[in-house]
Amino acid sequence: MTSTTAATYTEGPSALLVTAIHAGKAMRPSLKALCKLDEVERLREEDPFTDRWTDIAENTIVGLRSRFEVDLNRPRAKAVYRMPTDCWGLDVWEGTMPTIEVERSLATYDAFYESTGALVERLLSMHERLMVYDLHSYNHQRRGPGLLDDAALNPEINLGTANVDHDTWGDVLDVLTAALLTGPDGRSYDVRENVKFKGGHFGCWLNERFGARVCPVAIEFRKDFMNEWTGEPDAEAIARIHALLTSTIAPVMQATKLMQHA
User: Fold this and answer.
1) 180-233: per-residue pLDDT in tens?
2) Quick one: which of 74, 59, 63 has its CA closest to 18?
C-alpha cells in the first residue's frame, strides 16, 4: 500500500481496479478555517463508507481529501469549488478563497492524476484490458430528512457509462448489470444506466488517455445505506452492498477475459 496527499493506493496482479475517490473527508487546517460548513454538512455531499467496498479488489484507489478541498471527479478548472453554483447552492467559504489555497488544492489534484496514470500504465503493462469500478454514492432526500426524491429518477444503483467504449465493452456491461440486479442473498435491486449520472471527469480522463483498453464504469449507490442527513451508517446495508459487488467480480472478469481472446 502507498499513499499520497490525495489518495491511498494498493496494487496487485488482477485486471480489476476499484476506486472510491470521493470517500475522503480530510481538509487542511488553513482551508477548514475558511469553511462555513461543519463536518456533518460536508459529509452530506461526500461519499462516506464507499471506501469499505474497495477491498473486493487487489488494485484500489481511495480518496483521502474532502471534495470541498479538491474534487477529483471534475475537470481541473472546476475542481475547486468557489461559488455556490459550483456545489449544490452551498455557501462554503468566508469571503473569496485566497489564490494560494486554490493553488495548493490544484497541486493535490495534479499529484493524484500523475500517480493514478502511473498505476494504470503499470496495470496495462500486465493486462490487455482493465476493468474499473468507479464507486460513488448520491443523495435522494435533498428536500429534507425522510422526504424522498422521485424514485423514477433515482435508481438504487445508477451505472454511469458515458465514458465507456460500448463497442468494445458492451457485453461486459451487460454482464455487470445482470450481476447487480440480484444480490447473493436473493434481494433484487433497481439498476439503471445513465439515469441520475452518466459518469464524471475521472472516467472521462481514463477514456481519453487509455481509450478502449479501460472500462471506467461509475457505480453510484443511492444513500440507502446511511442516513444522508446525520451521516449515521447502516452496517447491514453496507455489508449487503459489499457482498453484491463481490458477487459481480467472477462473471465480469470472465466476460473481460473472453472479450480479450475473441
Assistant:
1) 999 999 999 999 999 999 999 999 999 999 999 999 999 999 999 999 999 999
2) 59
Per-residue pLDDT tens for 115-164? 999 999 999 999 999 999 999 999 999 999 989 999 999 999 999 999 99
- Phi/psi at 252 (nearest 5 deg)? -65, -45
Grid cell, residue 211, equals: 481509450
Q: Which domains does the chain have, with CATH numbers?
A: 2-260 (3.40.630.40)
**Closest to 158 in 3D by CA, of 142, 138, 173, 143:** 138
* pLDDT for 260: 61
Mean pLDDT computed over every residue of the chain: 95
**Sheet with 214-222, edge to edge strand ranges:** 2-3, 7-10, 59-63, 16-20, 130-138, 214-222, 157-160, 191-193
Question: Nearest 5 degrees, angle CA 122-CA 160-CA 201?
Answer: 55
What pairs with residue 7 in β-bridges?
63
Does the structure show a pLDDT above 80 at 3? Answer: no
Cell of 49: 463508507
pTM of the entire predicted model: 0.96
Q: CA distances (Å), 195 to each of 32, 87, 107, 155, 198, in order?
A: 34, 20, 33, 8, 7
Separation CA 178–CA 185 (nearest Å): 15
Quick check: 138 and 223 in contact, CB under 8 A? Answer: yes
Q: How far is CA 108 from CA 4, 69, 104, 153, 250, in A?
A: 9, 9, 7, 34, 35
